Amino acid sequence: DMSAGVFKEDIGLGGRGGYFDTFGIIRDIMQNHLLQILMWVAMEPPEDMSAAKLIEAKVKLLRCIRTLRVNPKECFLGQFGQSKYKVGQKEFSEPGYLDDETVPKDSRCPTFASLLVQVDNTRWRGVPFLMTAGKGLDERLCEVRIRYKQKPHNKLIAAMSGKRLRSNELVMRIQPNESLYMTTQSKVPGLDTMAEVPGLKWVPKPTVMDMSYDNNFTGAYVGDAYERMFLNAALGDQSLFVSADELVEMWRIFTPLLHQIDEQKPE
Description:
Dihydrodipicolinate Reductase, domain 2, two-stranded antiparallel ribbon, globular, NADP, carbohydrate metabolism, glucose-6-phosphate dehydrogenase activity
């Protein structure tokens, strides 16, 4: 039904606004990190896991992604403002983006963006891919959420339960607390919720099937992303590195959008 990739940071810029203002959240996070995640989710299975075949599969997918442009239905931009919060009895305040002394007061640089990405191939045509990234938000989070289509029998269950059913979802959480889990609609146990009994309703409840790394691999070491990159570089393994063909397509997808934002300075 849809796929959503999210990268959220709960901190601002810590005085780095002058640097960030020349790039913005799209260049900083979306054109590279989130797009790589989308590729791993949506690409066709490679013939093998060699670097050459992985790159081939990713480039094939990239060439099917439509070029992005400023469009109210497909692009939402924003900046974080000043925020206040409490920890116990103490109240704290975080400055907004324009409060940073290194940021121009009339800056329109986006610190938040949500984009609709469309893939024109047989598998994904018509399936929306949402990419969202931002700084100064409510939490630190990076994950991919895949929502499955509702099947015809779900309408029957909804009628029996008297509730609108949520779609089943597969979630791959990258940070914090690496995990893989699936949310499904399950029948609440008990004889009084059996649909077979006249007058009684089938009561659904979202149930989480969790494969948390902490719970399933107790004591296992989960290395930092850069550790893996340095190791692969030392081994001469290019499978996690970006190829020249990927770079060309990645910039082809985002450059018109970035130029429009730079020139038009949207409200």
